[in-house]
Amino acid sequence: MFGEGLIKGLTITWKSLIGKKITVLYPDEIYSLPDRFHGKFRFDKDACISCGMCVRACPNKVITLETEKVAKKKRILKYEMDIKYCLFCGLCVESCPKDALGYEKDFEMCQYKWEKLPMVFVDEEPLPAEEKERLEEEAKKAAEAKKAAQEAAKAKAAEDASQGKEG
After folding, report:
1. Which H or E element spans position 140?
2. Separation CA 31–CA 150 (nearest Å)
3. What domains does the chain contain, in order, with CATH numbers?
């Protein structure tokens, strides 16, 4: 029949005119976002163990991580994401073993200047040499105290076992 496509198109148009509206007036109303929405990144410095898994998982090399080792522990000096190259694929978030990296439901990340685009989560100076030495000495003392406590516990257990056999 001639005009069959036109009739199909007009029926779809009339249904959408009569049906429920799905558009929201954005600045005044905010659409509810799903739980797994990939928006602005959040970073928990205390949960991060500086393993670098997120850096290696990123396909565009967006994440910059700089660390220093102090008393057998890594300390984060710099954690930065250059958002202008980010795909928001979520590989970095999935690879984090301690859930230190995640998403917020904020999608308004526009900036007027390019210089403001990188998200700097941590930017600290390296510790001075004196502070590093002090922290390493404290760690050594703590390790020695722990070892002495373990040896004392073993000796007490051995003593209790020998008294149990005698009695």
Report:
1. helix 129-166
2. 58
3. 37-144 (3.30.70.3270)
